[in-house]
Amino acid sequence: MKLSGYLYIVAVVLLGSIIFYEYVYSSGNWISPYLVIPVALGIGTYVLSPQIDWWHSKRFPPQLEEKVVQIFENNSVYYQNLPTEKKKLFNERVCLFIEAKGWQYIGMQEEMPYDLKAIVAFEPIRLTLSQNNFLMKPFDRIAVYQNPFISPNIPERYHSSEIFAEDGIVLFSLKHILPAFREPHQYFNVVLYEYAKIMAMTYPDIIFPTLDDSFWPDLYKVANYGKREIMGAVGLPDVEPLPVAIHHYFIYGKYFESEYPELYNELQSIFEIYHLPYQLP
Q1: How many CB atoms are closer than 10 A to CB 216?
Q2: 165 and 201 in contact (C-beta within 8 Å)?
Q3: Cα–Cα 20 to 30 A to 209, which of 4, 20, 267, 277?
Q4: In tens digits, what is the pLDDT along the chain, a chain of 281 residues?
Q5: Domain map of the chain by residue range?
Q6: Measuring CA to CA, which residue among 60, 126, 128, 57 is closest to residue 96?
Q7: Biggest alpha carbon distance in the chain?
Q8: Cβ(171)–Cβ(162) under 8 Å?
Q9: Buried/exposed 242-268: b ≥16 CB within 10 Å, e otherwise
């Protein structure tokens, strides 16, 4: 139970205790000036519950479920190579990110599984691990569909991911989330791509590289796919070069550096990631 829930219980118990005491041991009337205390506590908790719970979570960070830790360890070279202290910070931030966001599991009766939330949270947390701010506001809602979807903003195409800044929501297809997390060199990671795009939008103090269409031709030398295949994975008629570059920086590391050395160094100055000399199987 969150701290705000305990405060509600305290307010109710205190309210009942004051009424009982006044009625039985004092005036025989339940009215008491002390009732203002539990009433104020209840109202204050109702109004400030998000801030109260966030403060408590940051002060006493929750522990990431061991099952999720094993998923990260088994599927991510990046996570495996984090130093112990960074790994601890990473786990705490995944928990806090999950708590801070609103989650929608579109077309499903049950709540979104915790491990799926953690896999989505993995990408914004690794993007921002060197930053103090990791919540990427105002994008506070995340919706996951089972399959590629159409949306009010893009009704003419089925696509696998989308950000909608006006509503602060990020949309993903589950069909594209899991394969890219499990086999990052085989599938384009739309979650990493969209959150790289969001980071460029929401961190004005970071000077990101400026890229144009000259970025695209050498991309096939890094991986076995290029712009056309990425557009097919996302399901939209165009993709942006900067978030693709950030995606490849994280996923392909030194292979990306060999083709884009200057760009790699610019991104390295932002993200500060240690890459193994060769990561591909």
Answers
A1: 16
A2: yes
A3: 277
A4: 564 555 445 556 555 555 555 555 565 565 656 556 656 655 655 555 555 555 555 566 778 999 999 999 999 999 999 999 999 999 999 999 999 999 999 988 889 999 999 999 999 999 999 999 999 999 999 999 999 999 988 999 999 999 999 999 999 999 999 999 999 999 999 999 999 999 999 999 999 999 999 999 999 999 989 999 999 999 998 999 999 999 999 999 999 999 999 999 999 999 988 776 655 54
A5: 3-59, 66-271
A6: 57
A7: 86
A8: yes
A9: bbbbbbbbbbbbebbbeebeebbebbe
- If DSSP codes are grouped into helix, strand and coil, which group holds residue 142? strand
Which residues, 6 or more positions from 6, have their beta carbon under 8 angstroms from its beta carbon?
none
Beta-bridged to residue 104, according to DSSP, are 143
Which residues, 6 or more positions from 183, have their beta carbon under 8 angstroms from its beta carbon?
Answer: none
Give the separation between CA 18 and CA 31, rounded to whole angstroms: 9
Residue 142 main-chain phi, psi, to 5 deg: -130, 125
Question: Domain 66-271: what homologous superfamily?
Answer: Glucose-regulated metallo-peptidase M90, N-terminal domain (1.10.472.150)
* Nearest of 215, 194, 209, 193 to residue 265 by alpha carbon: 209
Count how many residues are written for the chain: 281
Whether the ω angle into residue 243 lies within 30 degrees of 0, i.e. cis, is no
- Its pTM stands at 0.81
Q: Quick check: helix, strand or coil at residue 171?
A: strand
Token pair belonging to 121: 């949270």
111: three-class secondary structure by DSSP: coil
